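Subject: Protein entry, chain in single-letter code together with its fold tokens

Category: Structural biology, sequence-to-fold work with a learned token vocabulary.

Notation: Tokens come from a learned vocabulary of local backbone shapes, not from coordinates.

Start of record: The labelled sequence and token lines come straight after this line.
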Amino acid sequence: AEMGRTLVELFYDVVSPYSWLGFEVLCRYQHIWNIDLRLRPAFLGGIMQATGNKPPAMLPKRGEYMLKDIQRMAKYYQVPVKISEGDFQRIFGTSTLGAMRFITAMDMTQPGYLEPLSREFWIRFWSQREDISQPENILAVARQAGLSSELTQKLLEMISSPAVKNRLRETTEEAIKHGAFGMPAVVAHFNGEPHLFFGSDRLELLGSVIGE
């Protein structure tokens, strides 16, 4: 981080609608607050497994609440998340490992593209309800985000490389080391200490801790 700027890391997976909400708010505030926002693509499945966490919708009452909560937040933050009851099954049935490896490959190649690329994955999965585990959908996302076909091809080849797999695993482990048990996990490095905030509804608190 530059002198006087607070480094804020956002650990996210595009399978998570709350991560999309947190991502959009932090992307807006990075231009207003004195922060360096660092996007950290990680794998939610790995975090759940390591911490023994379970998807919130497995508790029916919590699932009911989540539907309303995400709809309200989508409206409030003007993020086009569309969610209905069937989406919980859809999430359980989709692996975002390939998508998160593709995003990780981008982070290792041209990190400037991370924001538009990640956003397109969320739009495709959470607005257009497409299965982003399919290679042709990953290609469509890359096109939408403005990637050249050469770059897209390069990233697709990188997906299966040990370098990308290890990088995604390391980023996921880093989130766990900071205390993450779900996503989004936001870590603000302030006064020489990491401060973990879980979820997209703690951003006022984040602002308060870093003096914004």
Observations:
- The radius of gyration is 17 Å.
- The longest strand covers residues 6-12.
- The chain has ten helices and four strands.
